[in-house]
Amino acid sequence: MHMSIPKLKKIKNEKRYHDITLSDEYAWVDQPNILEVLKDANKLDPEVKSYIDANNKITDVYFEDVKDLQKNLFNEIKSKIKLDDTSLKFKDKKYYYWAKTEAKGNYGKRIRQLIDGSKSEEVFFDGDLEKKNYGSEYFGVGSVSISHCDNLMAYSLDLKGSEYYTIYLRDLRTGKNEKDIIENTSGGITWSLDSKSFFYSKLDKFHRPRQIFKHIIGTPIKDDKLIFEEKDETFTCGIGLSSDEKFFIISTSDHITTEDYFFPSDASEINPILFKRRKKDVRYSLDSWKGYFYVHTNEDARDYKVLRCKTDEIDKLETFIAAKKETVIGGLDFLDDYILRGEKSDAIPKLYVRNINTNEEEELKISDEAIGVPGVSLMQKDTNTSKIRVHWESMASPGKIYEYDIVSKEKKLVKETEIPSGHNPDKYVVERIKAKSHDGRMIPISLVRLKDAKQDGKSKILLYAYGAYKHSISPSFSASRFCLVDRGITFAIAHIRGGGDLGDVWHEEGKKKSKRNTFLDYIACANHLIEQRYTHKGGICFYGGSAGGLTGGAVANMAPELFYSMLLLVPFVDTMTTMLNEKLPLTPAEWELWGNPIKDKDYFKYILSYAPYNNLEKKDYPSMLITTSLFDNRVLYSEPVKYIAKLRDVKTDNNTQLLKCKMKAAGHGGMSGRDNAITELAEEYSFVLKTAKIFK
Question: Whose C-alpha in 447, 484, 600, 636 is 20 to 30 A from the C-alpha of 200?
């Protein structure tokens, strides 16, 4: 590399917490008005800006010799996507609704047509055209919601990437927008049944949705009525309509506790009724169907159960679906005569259908493949039917959607994910293996590789992980991955604790004072793959983003020798600084996951023991590509900026560690639009391949 590495100035900064001194020479990067920067890039400290610019240049220089590879990867990924695709139609009351993408566009169209066919199809939302009209570089769509009378459309857009959504209203009969726009919302829109109003949640100054308002069409925004306010600043709230449309349900929650309110959907006066008072660590969600409330809850059932009661007897709850040991009970979908539900054990999901009249239940078997992802969706608004759509995909097989009749058990293939450049699942093998962690827990690993690849310890492996927020990483299909797999890299997922892959307990065992399990599980998976000769020491590329980037940063400190490179996308690496700043959008609610280091010395010490930034030390680190975005409000740009500066101060290796910060039009999920997403992925993959010394 020909360019000199930029330096960031150091300012002595020592603060005491619980009689422990925390020194951070780059603390000045966390400027006090950091939330303003997310709205206005001009407020960024000029020194930080020039440091980021210099890093972006270095990263560009690094990739110069793989420009052709990036181009090939871009074309290869694009050739695996059917660019002009149409979704299956959903039959509403008066209209069919569906979505369509085109070869040239980036954002897709939403289309509808009268069921009786009396009018031609109508594009009611054209993403590319809208983006052009708004003239913004970034274009994030929150929701597009049609009123029950079918004449009005409310939609929300984020034109920066900072997740502040503005709601717009359009009359579909004239195609014209109303002058009223509602700013600083969470993006969700829920229409009243009479289509005269809609509900939305407003963001407070810390970017937390804690108020729900009702907007009456044709009245000034300033007259919108506050219908619910959450007083606890760690809780956020939203509103939706129940399955039978009899009630609006307001749900308020932090990461571990929920509380729901309801009011009749035809009520002239809104007085939300509390369903069940919040109780720490108890989560529940409410739905109504045909005179009953159904409650999906983890109270006295770590991996959930379903209770129900009559809607006018909310204190008389009875068990509807009992809890099962080490099995996650999923939520419900309703038809007149059937209830559909999912469950998951050992990180493998299954589907069940229950006959309401006989109470008999059976598993819906879609495929003979052992490991994959089944799904179910309704075909129409009218629930008086026995037909549904079921879908199946695995790490090697693209998605298939069948029309399935619950009564006759007939299934008909109605849509298959098409890979235009071709894809033969028989070329690959999908495996599920388990690694023994430090405390004896068996950690599942899902992987896909070439069938004829030798298990001789010579292959490189990309080992993806997340491990937080009870989020599960499903062993689903991704066409782009095969750009790596076809070049001989095994793609694997470590289903580590902290995630929800094996249920609530799995999540609990990877948070707060058990957080280190997440990292030790990952290291155990890596070592097991080495022992079983899928790869070798130094043959692994870490791949993860956000809280998965924290996992990457922690294992880089604990076991750097395992990796040849690391891909840390918008990584949460300065955990301590963020957890000590209660003014940041997400922090107060996050204490339930990481612990509160402000109030509690033990948590302070514990977070300090693994926080990636605080634990960087003099040793060799693998090559890294670290990405961030100036407008990301989930993981602030300051975290990767500080991390790369300190890493370069202490490391003893000659490897390349890069920072790429998007200065314009990008959020936590990167840039918007299909081509931009493919460009980013091609760059990430070129880094994986270049560091693996695979240039073909």
Answer: 636
